[in-house]
Amino acid sequence: MPFSRRISGSRTIAFWIFLLLLLSIALPPRLGAQDSDDDEDEPPPPATHAAIAGKRIFQQRCGFCHGADGSGGEGPDLLHSSLVLHDDNGNLILPVVRGGRAAQGMPAFSLPPLQIRQIAAFLHEEIQADATIFYTNSTADYSLKKLLVGNASAGKIYFNGEGKCSGCHSPTGDLAHIASKYRPIELQSRIAYPAGTTPTIEVTLPSGLKLSGAQVYADPFVVSLRDARGWTRSFSTDHVKVEIHDPLLEHKRLLTIYTDTILHDLFAYLETLKE
Ligand code: HEC
Ligand code: HEC
Description:
With 275 residues, the protein is an alpha+beta fold. The chain has helices at 2-26, 29-35, 49-61, 63-66, 82-86, 93-99, 113-136, 142-147, 152-160, 178-181, 184-192, 249-255, 260-271; strands spanning 200-204, 210-218, 222-226, 232-236, 241-245. The protein is 48% helix and 11% strand. It is globular, with a radius of gyration of 26 Å.
């Protein structure tokens, strides 16, 4: 009998192991994910998961040269770099990290795109935090000083001349008081990446039928628009003719020709439109 009791005992154990296994599968995955996170002690509120992961990678791989928070060390300050300010989800940071700038002392890293996007998320959150500190601490006009390295009168000349900004904007019209409307860091990125207007997409179906609506998504292969009835409709660009009307097209073109100096000068000029 002890023999059969042992069997039933081990059956009970097997049952409990089975139950535990089931439970561990059924538990929400985020519990498991957080266990492997070094930063689990830190209060998570503002940081996204991507930024938390990015922080760790950045500190391991990049902090040595760029400072643990990205504000500079042996290598340049990345929180006031116009390249980083213009970066959207890693699109500009990725080529620098993958290719390096050997001649200037920046090694190449073969990090996967996901990790580079996480680093980008971390840097963008640091930039935000920096701007928030500036605004909550009135004695720290440090951030503005750091940003205000351009020449306002050169910026004004560019605005009215070569930059053709005055073709669409006016310092006494739509851009009047723009410097009091936005925080400096925000103004700087708005010059490069204005927000608030959505491109319109017009799609011509093979039948000749045309549909148009606000852009929801667009890449070279797929476009999505919101139609007049509020439905999101996606099309493969192989099958339809696509025209995108983007009010910010000119800005996107400018982005490819701005130099740091132009951006800083324009920023210094627009900062004078306060009052
Ligand atoms: C050995 C030092 C070193 C390390 C490590 C390093 N960098 Fe750099 N990084 C530099 C230097 C120096 C430059 C400036 C290159 C130049 O002048 O063009 C630079 C430039 C950059 C720039 C361009 C900034 C701009 O405004 O043009 C970015 C973005 C950047 N690094 C991101 C990273 C990231 C992300 C990592 C980690 C994956 C990293 N770096 C690791 C030294 C380093
Ligand atoms: C072809 C027209 C066009 C040109 C040229 C142009 N912009 Fe714009 N700009 C726009 C549009 C459209 C918007 C988005 C609508 C808005 O926010 O007013 C915009 C938005 C902005 C904003 C954000 C305004 C806000 O209130 O958020 C700034 C700053 C700006 N542009 C600066 C410039 C500068 C500096 C130049 C020249 C280097 C320039 N723009 C050239 C069309 C143009």
